[in-house]
Design goal:
The chain is about 45% helix and about 15% strand. It is built from 8 helices and 7 strands, in the order βαβαβαβαβααβααβ. The chain has a single domain, classed as NAD(P)-binding Rossmann-like Domain (Rossmann fold, 3-Layer(aba) Sandwich), CATH 3.40.50.720. The protein has a 7-stranded parallel beta sheet with strand order 3-2-1-4-5-6-7, sandwiched between helices. Strand 4, helix 4 and strand 5 form a beta-alpha-beta unit. It is an alpha/beta fold.
Length: about 260
């Protein structure tokens, strides 16, 4: 990926951006010049804190917080409307919101299965549908779905999460066809489990055991910054002819074909 593009004047909505990967993506988009809508399902204080971090670093008026369940069509419509009323436009949608619950397949609860698929797939569908008319305003709209390497490799005790992330691949390709004539690119970034700068040593050790020296050709665990850099690059002008693709960020755990 090239150096971070200039996204000044652009507006991005990142779902599930009050924590971890979504938070890092929001910060990277702000560094590139974009204004942000920070979304959380219920963590209002955390969403406001991320918005304040961005404003403290990049200036007032650069971020707003919005508590909205991405599975609720009315809440999603209101969130997109807030972006338009605040900034006058919407250029980038990052579908990052997801639910993570591990469990053995034989005893996994149906309500947990539904909640994970509902948030990841229905949420991405609803947000994309609400955002698309606004993303099409200047033939430069961008949708990025955050998938995962396990959707390609499989894993134990994660049937619902893997099914949901695999479903995002189909949604990405379908929307690339439907929204392409509107000038909207739709891609999927599929990371492995990544560490953040403030992860505890035990968390880093756990990630290293899964994606570290034994299994990763790169010989290290990736960082959330590396995922966010890929997201930001896909939002820039240099990648307007890339759509319907999966971008693997996993240090060689899986080689996409």
């Amino acid at each position: 990926m090239e150096a971070a593009p200039n996204l000044k004047g652009r507006v991005a909505l990142v779902t599930g951006s009050a924590r971890r990967t979504g938070r890092v993506i929001a910060h990277k988009l702000a560094e590139a010049g974009a204004s942000l809508v920070i979304n959380a399902r219920s963590a209002a204080a955390e969403a406001r804190a991320v918005a304040k971090e961005i404003e403290d670093l990049h200036g007032k008026g650069r971020a707003i917080a919005c508590v909205a369940n991405v599975c609720d069509p009315a809440a999603v419509d209101a969130m997109v409307a807030l972006a338009i009323s605040t900034y006058g436009r919407l250029d980038i949608l990052v579908n990052n919101a997801s639910v993570r619950r591990h469990g053995e397949f034989a005893t996994y609860k149906l309500e947990d299965w539904h909640d994970i698929l509902h948030t990841t797939l229905d949420g991405s569908f609803l947000c994309s549908r609400a955002a698309a008319p606004h993303l099409a305003h200047d033939q430069c709209g961008t949708i990025i779905n955050i998938g995962g390497v396990a959707a390609h490799t499989g894993a134990r005790n994660a049937a619902a999460m893997i099914t949901a992330k695999a479903g995002l691949l189909g949604l990405t390709r379908a929307l690339a066809h439907e929204l392409g004539p509107m000038g909207i690119t739709v891609n999927c970034v599929a990371p492995a489990s990544m560490r953040s700068a403030d992860d505890e040593p035990a968390r880093i050790a756990q990630l290293n055991s899964l994606y570290g020296h034994e299994k990763t050709p790169m010989g290290r665990t990736g960082t959330m910054d590396e995922v966010s850099e890929a997201v930001v690059s896909l939002c820039g002008p240099a990648w307007r002819y890339m759509t319907g693709q999966v971008i693997h960020i996993n240090g060689g755990v899986f080689f996409g074909s």
